[in-house]
Amino acid sequence: MGTTTEERRSWTQDPEGVKRDILSVAVSEFAANGFSGARVDTIASRTRTSKRMIYYYFGDKHGLYTRALEAAYLKVREGEASLDLDHLPPAKALARLVAFTFEHHRENPDFIRMVMIENIHNAKNLAASQVIRDLNVAAIDKLADICRRGEAEGLFRPGLDPVALHWQISAASFFNVSNRPSFSAIFGPELYDEKAQVCLRDQTVEAILAIVATSTGK
Amino acid sequence: MGTTTEERRSWTQDPEGVKRDILSVAVSEFAANGFSGARVDTIASRTRTSKRMIYYYFGDKHGLYTRALEAAYLKVREGEASLDLDHLPPAKALARLVAFTFEHHRENPDFIRMVMIENIHNAKNLAASQVIRDLNVAAIDKLADICRRGEAEGLFRPGLDPVALHWQISAASFFNVSNRPSFSAIFGPELYDEKAQVCLRDQTVEAILAIVATSTGK
Amino acid sequence: MGTTTEERRSWTQDPEGVKRDILSVAVSEFAANGFSGARVDTIASRTRTSKRMIYYYFGDKHGLYTRALEAAYLKVREGEASLDLDHLPPAKALARLVAFTFEHHRENPDFIRMVMIENIHNAKNLAASQVIRDLNVAAIDKLADICRRGEAEGLFRPGLDPVALHWQISAASFFNVSNRPSFSAIFGPELYDEKAQVCLRDQTVEAILAIVATSTGK
Amino acid sequence: MGTTTEERRSWTQDPEGVKRDILSVAVSEFAANGFSGARVDTIASRTRTSKRMIYYYFGDKHGLYTRALEAAYLKVREGEASLDLDHLPPAKALARLVAFTFEHHRENPDFIRMVMIENIHNAKNLAASQVIRDLNVAAIDKLADICRRGEAEGLFRPGLDPVALHWQISAASFFNVSNRPSFSAIFGPELYDEKAQVCLRDQTVEAILAIVATSTGK
DNA sequence: TATGAATGAGGCTTCATTCAT
DNA sequence: AATGAATGAAGCCTCATTCAT
Questions:
Q1: What class is the D70-212 domain?
Q2: CA closest to E5 C1', residue
Q3: Which nucleotide is nearest to B39 (CA to C1')?
Q4: DSSP code for B155
């Protein structure tokens, strides 16, 4: 169940494997239930080792949570790294970045939920993690580069704030996943059909492009 | 804190007052700590009655949570009711609706957090509450009316989906509040300065207007 | 539900009716759940008055229990009073008394259960109730009379102890009802079919008659 | 009290010993107070471990009760196993079985009380326990064998139902213990003097023998 | 490196009962 | 004679965590 055959092969005397196993279960449990809602017992039982090992490797529940949060970030940023935009013209690059982010978030709901949970806790642990901060700054760099190129070519309005743009892209992409349950509960599940999701994604791309466009286009 | 002078006057034999008092504390505690993180004891101690009364009126922790969720919705939708858009031309009305929603969400962080928490729990309780569903459908009606008027005047592109539009407006307004802690932790608190918030709001208004605009404007 | 139309007619200003109503519900609840298992709230809710009235009339849960126990005894002994054995010859009278007791117990399972519960509590309340002791002594008198007549006629062995005989009659009649659930659970419900019950009753009558018979019959 | 010297020796890291200790206290407490009347705290305090261990090993109060019920049955049936009747002629064997059962029940009042309590709860838990059903069926076998032998020798009337006979034996033996408090309360404690108990036992043996005897003896 | 047994602290909930009218 | 609101005490149970090996 969720463990690859490689993981299953053998594990005694494989500390790193044990740790990875625990972390992957932990991410899933914390993402599903929040920090207080998650149970150390449940995490342990879904693991191939015992509860004692969690304390052996991670100290306490909070230590496990912190490491699970980092693990979730690392995994998701790995996926982002594959995106190469340098060879595309600015508008195309931006459109692709937005579409990619939208899809990428959809594919990583556990990551989204970890961030939701962090926000419930006022991002206390996230703020404490240098690892995570570094990862995000890298994400902004990509966007800043596109802006610079677009401005240089006179296609984008001058003075764009990459962080504000990131905010706008994130808002749509994040909300789409984070609030799916409430939105579906209230308005029905149709908005999450594949077709409707493509519309929302295109709508979002369009909105972002409108923001960066020089006002003459208006 | 949050109790009106009328509520403070006297309370023995004032069931409704007691209930309101409990609910208002409950919203604040659940919003701050989530369902599992909130403590019935803590809620009780911040109340002018005892823990026993919580069970007397709400049955159990979950019953209290459900009612607190409804209370949060009711309060926030009351605020929305004050917005009158019928006398404005469609684009102006839409711009105002977006700006209002953006501000309104900022002013009701506890409500936002309750919805976040609900989403962590897959909106199970929200789905079960007819009260909440009704409130939201009403919110869509306002938007549908603006769309219809805009389309009739040839200012908006035909075939707009009010729910998709609501999604876009909510995404920005909700995310702005829900992810403030993580965003601030990573990029610094500047984006939440009053000035920067106005920029984000305007940017959002602009993006929404771009979406509804007839494609000739492109 | 279980309330006669007469009881339903009107009740304000009818203290005795209210008390009877409460007691009848109390017997049923205590019989079903034992003293600790019974809930004052449940009793109240099955009553046509409120919980407050229980305390008004019976002081506390224990007071109610005591009165319910007495009520159960009174009701069951009323039934017994109808039995007239004086005109029958001793053996016939005894046979009839046994058969009657057997049936009477079957028809009053709540009474049996009240006695079971009392025994769990070491008959503390029963011992304290003069009412109940008097009722039982009266029951013995009937039996003693039969014994005396049987002995006088040389049909019964001399020196019979009416209490020991009562014990034997009660054992079968009581056990038949009190242990029906466990017996059925283990050996199946067949022993409680009407036909099988008649056999058990006859078997019991026969056993009792054998006990009192003069040893010459052996 | 009730713990063997072996159990007393040492207990850390002795799960089976701990479980046995808890169960023995639990039987005594449940037998004394019924399910609702028993207190987990009280049980724990009479144990050499803590309340927490009860939940560790038995899950909850109900789980403990179920296991205590089984433990009571197992213990009592163990005692019965020692009875060897095969070498006795049928009537003697039956007489001995009855007398033995009578005494055995007297010596195991906690077991009797557990069964009483189960009957108050409609034998719900007893019905669910395969362990207990098996034990009882074994008890019937012994009786069936005696009947078969008695019938074969023409000493017992044909067509005897072992279950009905078991019912009759149980009735007297069980009632003698279960209703001792109420009987003593009403008729005084004399019937439970050793001498009177022997009389009752003999009376019961006689009654059972009379039931199985061929009617020619009448 | 690994583990089954054990646990203190604190969580949620229920109960019989009383208060004020 | 009657009642809805209110409550302290105590119940059962769960949680993260540590001990002994």
A1: mainly alpha
A2: D13
A3: E11
A4: -
